[in-house]
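Protocol step 6 of 9: fold each sequence in the batch and record its structure tokens directly after the sequence line. For illustration, a two-sequence batch is reproduced in full.

Sequence one:
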Amino acid sequence: MGTVKLGENMEIKEEVIMKACSMARKAHKYPGKQYLSKEIRSSSSEVVFSFAGSLSVNDWFSGSAFGEMKVDLQFFPSLKYVGLDQTGRVNEAFFKRFQAVLANPRFKVEVEKAVADRRQVVFTGHCSGGAIAILATAWFLEVYNRQSSNCIEPLCLTFGSPLVGDYIINIAIRREKWSRYFVNFVMRYDIVPRISLSPLSSIKQQLQRVLDYFNQNSQQPPNDAPAFYETVVKHASSVATYAACKIMGSTNPLLETVSSFIEPSPYRPFGTYVFCTGTGKLVVISNPDAVLQVLFYSSQLSTEEEKVTVAQTSLRDHLNYENYLQEHLKRPAVTSLFHHHQEALAVSWNVASVEREQVDMALNDLGLCLGFQSERARLSLRAAEALEKQKLRNQATIDGKKKDIEKCLDKLQEYQSKCAHKVGYYDAFKSSDEEEDFHANVARLELAGIWDVIIEMLKRYELPDEFEGQKEWIGLGTRYRRIVEPLDIANYYRHLKNEDTGPYMGKGRPRRYKCTQKWREHAEQLPDEIPESCFWAEVEELCIKAGCQGTIESILHLKTKVDKWIQNKELGDDVLLENSTFTKLQKQHFLTN
């Protein structure tokens, strides 16, 4: 495989990359403006929005050691680990700056016009302006692309941007198949993309002097630039080593002990990274675990002399993206590593596989083949690639269980049909008087075993990040929940588990049902409500509270929901049979009151 031009390697016009880079740098000249916007003159299809980076350290970190906050789901409802209900974290200072941009009505009007005119919206930024561009792109995807499949896909091009979000953000971005929209250019020694890996307390004064240097654009970097570079790289080392140990499955208790005392940075890369090697070449990496390792190992130095020289070069390089890309973007010198082949990319890679020779050349260009840590670097990168492949193998394993799940669900659906002619599905299973009830319980337990394994794999991050967004598994999970959860509820109240544990909807509901419910709610953008599969849990609690104040109103409200669920075929009409517990509950209250 030979090297190719970046424009051929990715379906992004070189003209767009260069215009975005130029506007990203130009935005710094107008610090009073929140953003600049411009159409690309020779093309009628793109509108570029560029954001300036801030030169105040207070706009980089806010609050805690690393300045992170939980994502505001009102702005970014998708940036979470759906089934396990874990919310991602983003840099609070960057989020507040983006929030200020969003509060500007002119910004929304211009974006809306670009969308209406069928233009591709390109968000870009250099330095911390890149962080604002990333958040703007995530917002755009939530507001436009997630709501409409007809909207033209956006593009985010950043140059020397610091990291913005944690590993949950990466999971969410890949689950939504949004990774292809984020392309981050990084000069090999540029220190800025590594800054977020350090706590503010260790670099605050030095960082402000570095920002002042960027502002003055003087020839001489700060005297403490080497110390600043060394501090940032030291923290990057801690994060990369910790992440590599996790990837390799280290069970060393010392790892957890150290991390409990020394808090590692929560920030992680996501999207595609284009590393500018400094040798005229570009190396493309779309595996986020590999990107993190390259961010550290490519910044390693072997001598004291190098520390001084490279530390100064790292600051100059941060200001040199436009010149470097102008010279090398059109050259056939691009290599792609660790292609994430599961996702169908609009920004597609023409490279199907990378031969050993090209890998060695790319690693050498990044400085990963030199020095005493070269072997560790290679091991870490191989582990990142191996983890990705193992996740795909794990998915193949559980995909092989689909037939077993379907077979058990078909049996239970047949059992449900038979019960519909008696007292109903729920009440028949709760009584468990017949042999067929026993067989239904066996199927219930078999399915619980399969689904509990899947949920445990999700908890350990052993499945592809896209798994929770796969329509087939969302549909299968919904079918499983609707058919089987009523049986779990019947079993729970039959054995009076509520007397020890409390109501089923409190601590009694298994995670497998919570996860599958949340998958559907996220995919269909539904509100977080008590679902139809928990109908019988509500009935049981109303039976227990019979005669209490407000019970009649609760029954009427539940009856309204039942009618809607039955109409939408989300609940069987056997719940209304003459001898069902729900019918008896209604008769008891409306005949005695």
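Sequence two, same batch, same settings:
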Amino acid sequence: MDSSGANKTCCESIRDFFTSAKFLIYMGHALSTWGDRMWNFAVAVFLVELYGNSLLLTAVYGLVVAGSVLLLGAIIGDWVDRNPRLKVAQTSLLVQNSCVIVCGILLMVVFQFKEQLVELYNGWILTTCYILVITIANIANLASTATSITIQRDWVVVVAGQDSSKLADMNATVRIIDQLTNILAPMLVGQIMAFGSHFIGCGFIAGWNLCSMCLEYALLWKVYQKTPALAMKAGQKEQQQELKQLSVPKDSDNGQSPEESSQPLMDEAPAVDKPDTPQQNGFCYQVTEPLRTLKSGWVAYYNQNIFFAGMSLAFLYMTVLGFDCITTGYAYTQGLNGSVLSLLMGASAVSGICGTVAFTWVRKKCGLIRTGFISGVAQLSCLMLCVVSVFSPGSPFDLSVSPFQDLYTHLIGEKTLPEADHSLTSVLTGGNATTAAPAAEQPTLQSYMSVSLLFAGVIAARVGLWSFDLTVTQLIQENVIESERGVINGVQNSMNYLLDLLHFIMVILAPNPEAFGLLVVISVTFVAMGHIMYFRFAFKSLGNRLFLCCSPEQKVETVDPPSLPTTV
């Protein structure tokens, strides 16, 4: 009897976990990020293929996406704050997936009838299709930003309740899902396009998003039903109507799981509705409302006590030391082939997962704020290898070559790149990136020393990077009042995109491989500046106790204003 009872209890616990709001959020996030990663990878390939192996359309798309989030991040966050949680999640989900489906179908038409479209109206129909694809894809990205803010920055907090350890575990699990999908999803769609065609790849992504949208919609509704606290949002008139929609028993003693009875991380007094003044009903007032929202969002972000922590995270985006097209292009110029780079990307993903696991362990031992300080020290220490690589044997770094020479010669048109040109500009503009080093010069072990040190530093630094990212994410989650979560996270996304945009501008200004070492030094400098800002925040919060490791029972980490919750 005891054994059967124990088995029954074990089965029930497994069943409860797989039907819990926490697991359903993981499932929905996995489906969402899988579709996002496939689309983000494929759209760049599609645009390159459509424009004759040039990165022009891809660069335009990247600029539009970055500029849109930079300008509209605060407005998107404010919309998330002003509307009921379920409405925001469902609307952003439907808009995002519908836009990707429409883009997929439009790209299928372009791939199938490209020759005919080129001849129509001197190619203006094809140009219109390019504009439509970039515009609709940008709308999908904005909707994805809204989904990320509402699920990862708000729903996760409410489902975790007031349990900081549970919130840290959920954040870490979500980040592990991000890491895995970032590697596996592009591999899948890449194989489909390689063995099939771009037409089939577009159709597969459109079909995936259609099926995924239905499943995610159902999962969101189940999470909403299981967590009544999601229906209670500060200042929302629809609060009572939402509560009536939930078919949850009033009796809380019927085996209800902890997250089903969770409360919001912080309570607020309901907002008092005030009648609109005649000025507020005017046309000019309504037209300028987005500008006022944008201004108030940035002001609110600046007034947050976690302002320096958020800025420190944004500064980490001003770097060429990541596995993006910039670093990949530089690696090709140094003789690394695609096979080696894929292995390095896999190692980077494993390193990132180790960082998320380390975050949960260090946070329990040293507290949240100290975890960010330790992660920053670890990341900077690893990046010193990248600085050393600049001056190591095999490095192309040469201060005698003007960083702007390649840009200048392209602008005046005096330089014609040879077929086997290995400059960074050639790689980034659709040149022959897959060729190895010139045949006349056999690469030696010494010639790979610099690039080996560079990637060793980049991969090792991912442990500290992702741990630091999780730290700042949880600080924002725990220390921003509920009514401002959306707008603060929207501004944070804008700051991230702004620094990311600046790093691309930096590469455009100095694109030749001889100047890449200078970009490395600038990148490490910005990372150091970011961690100095975090140190200022941490020292202001903890004082001298920042350097004292203490047990979880002893640590008291507060962020100043008494109206904000304390960080455990």
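Proceed to step 7 once all outputs are recorded. Observation for sequence two: Confidence is low (pLDDT under 50) at residues 1-6, 237-275, 414-443, 551-568.
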